[in-house]
Design brief:
By secondary structure, the protein is α+β, with helices and mostly antiparallel strands. The chain has 14 helices and 19 strands. The strands form 6 sheets. Strands 16-15-12-2-17 form a 5-stranded antiparallel beta sheet, sandwiched between helices. Strands 10-7-3-11 form a 4-stranded antiparallel beta sheet. β4 and β5 form a beta hairpin.
């Protein structure tokens, strides 16, 4: 069963302090603009925000993110990852952009009619745009094809003009280029087997929901996202600050050479604020306890890197929070909390209904299987009336 996240919930998450800005890497895309003068079909489709829309163009299915795609007849573009495919002589690997160019040379009418466009999409999906799970530039003929769409307006905003137009000022029929690296996108990770309203399914390994400056929201498989975007990490004041590299002179710029101030290892105030934004009550309680743990167990902090909250598993709670919780769910949140559901410690909304069973559970007393006993943190003592719980014989 796939869980469904509403468009409203997605936007709320992207606006929350735990989502981050990312910059595009040098990963190239292959872009195929629709030629001028093509007449499509009047069709209905689903917009990126989940709303219904209609337009003149063509529909096709992208099985990579389990989503129907719409391409405008006037100004639409196909997009796929640049890389290799076995379309050279005798099955030799050549670039995907070269394969598309070779196909257009053999089929100059490839995008002229609805029937020809359907044939061309099938060729692109079957022969060109199938990539490895971990590396979108490598070929894997057994995987689902990955082609998506946008329009020329988006293309002009995100790519350099010299990469998309020829010297006569005409748009190229096949473009192979990387995005401008300076344009940030906002992104948040969602766990596996989750349907995101209007933009697709996160698949078996999870995916990032991305939001560009113009507000358009899209889905990017986790393995592809890791290749396509980067987030710089700056260590400051003995904490790890995650964010995009703002230019010198910006109000958000941080001098990496600034003198550090020694502080006890532990969680940051940002972690505590994030803990309070988690929507699932039981995960919110666990996050609060993780914020308590470094302060109450300083002797263990030498085993745990700086930014202790994340080292302890804080980030995993954030990622799970957005999944729907149910006894038969297959996403990480349902799998993780299923023992608490079955023990009657929480209900299907994630609220704690039996504090004693919750605090004495393996989830609390051996957090994430790391031998971290959260049962005697201030947070846990509070929910069982200030009493101490028996300490595990050995912290593994």
């Amino acid at each position: 069963m796939n869980d469904k996240i509403s468009h409203e919930s997605v936007q709320k998450g992207l606006d929350a302090p735990y989502s981050d800005d990312y910059l595009s890497t040098g990963l190239k895309r292959v872009i195929i603009p629709m030629p001028k003068g093509v007449t499509g079909n009047d069709v209905e489709y689903t917009e990126w925000d989940g709303s219904k829309a209609s337009g003149n163009g063509f529909l096709f299915y992208n099985s990579e993110d389990s989503r129907e795609q719409f391409i405008k007849a006037d100004g639409g573009i196909f997009i796929g990852h640049e890389g290799e495919c076995p379309e050279g002589p005798d099955g030799k690997m050549i670039s995907r952009s070269m394969a598309v160019k070779r196909y257009f040379m053999k089929h100059p009418d490839a995008l002229s009619t609805p029937e020809k466009i359907e044939e061309t999409i099938k060729y692109l999906q079957d022969k060109v745009f199938r990539h490895e799970e971990k590396d979108p530039t490598k070929w894997d003929g057994k995987r689902d094809a990955d082609i998506w769409t946008s329009d020329v307006k988006w293309l002009e905003k995100n790519f350099r003009r010299e990469d998309i137009y020829n010297t006569n000022g005409e748009i190229k029929s096949v473009i192979s280029a990387a995005k401008k690296s300076e344009i940030p996108v906002r992104a948040e990770y969602y766990g596996p087997n989750t349907e995101v309203e209007g933009i697709g399914d996160t698949g078996d390994y999870g995916a990032y929901v991305t939001r560009k400056e113009d507000g358009v929201t899209d889905l990017c498989a986790a393995n592809v996202f890791d290749k396509s975007y980067k987030r710089e990490r700056i260590e400051r004041d003995n904490y790890l600050i995650l964010g995009m590299p703002y230019p010198k002179g910006s109000l958000k710029w941080i001098d990496p050479n600034e003198k550090k101030v020694d502080k006890p290892q532990g969680v940051t105030e940002r972690d505590r604020k994030i803990a309070e934004t988690l929507e699932t009550p039981v995960l919110r309680v666990l996050a609060r306890a993780l914020c308590d743990y470094p302060l109450e167990n300083p002797e263990r902090m030498s085993e745990i890197p700086i930014a202790a909250g994340y080292a302890l598993g804080f980030g995993g709670l954030q990622a799970m929070d957005k999944n729907i919780l149910s006894k038969d769910g297959t996403n990480p949140k349902s799998e993780y909390l299923k023992p608490l559901l079955e023990a009657g410690a929480i209900n299907e909304k994630g609220a704690i209904i039996n504090a004693e069973a919750f605090v004495s559970s393996e989830v609390v007393k051996n957090f994430n299987g790391k031998g971290i006993d959260l049962s005697n943190t201030a947070t846990m003592r509070k929910i069982i009336g200030g009493r101490d719980m028996p300490v595990q014989n050995k912290e593994r």
